[in-house]
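Appendix C: a fully annotated inverse folding record. The material below is reproduced so that readers can follow the format used throughout the book. The structure is listed first as tokens, followed by the designed sequence.
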């Protein structure tokens, strides 16, 4: 709960919200931060962590295990405060959560679905060993504009 203020401050950014699902609101309020912290702290299957920089929550990263016939898969999601972009922080965070996921969750594959226009996210996924598995044209609608969905995956070796 001590992260509510920093989470609300850094998440309240249209440049971040534009690359995430509509579940990540803009504007992003303290109430949104509180709701998210409560969700992330709940005893559910997902594993969500703050990206902490100098004692402040400046982003988030999580694995969301799937169920049923997809139960050996987990979806990766992440975001980082804009002042920290381009410093290798997300690269490091993804490496850590992939190792954590394969060690602590009964999964064989982790995947991420960046928008086709999100070149920075695509590059970081490739940098940490994710492979492009598929491209789907115009499957995402964000801000009334269709976006392509790119699916990247990495498998437990």
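Designed amino acids, in order:
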């Amino acid at each position: 709960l001590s992260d509510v203020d920093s989470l609300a401050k850094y998440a309240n950014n249209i440049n971040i919200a534009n690359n995430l699902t509509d579940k990540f609101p803009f504007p992003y309020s303290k109430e949104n931060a509180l709701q998210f912290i409560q969700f992330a702290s709940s005893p559910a299957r997902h594993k969500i962590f703050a990206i902490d920089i100098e004692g402040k929550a400046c982003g988030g990263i999580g694995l969301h295990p799937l169920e049923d016939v997809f139960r050996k898969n987990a979806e990766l999601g992440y975001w980082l405060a804009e002042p920290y972009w381009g410093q290798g922080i997300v690269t490091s965070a993804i490496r850590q959560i992939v190792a954590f996921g394969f060690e602590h969750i009964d999964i064989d594959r982790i995947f991420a679905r960046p928008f086709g226009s999100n070149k920075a996210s695509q590059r970081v996924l490739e940098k940490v060993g994710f492979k492009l598995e598929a491209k789907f044209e115009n499957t995402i609608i964000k801000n009334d504009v269709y976006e392509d969905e790119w699916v990247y995956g990495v498998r437990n070796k």
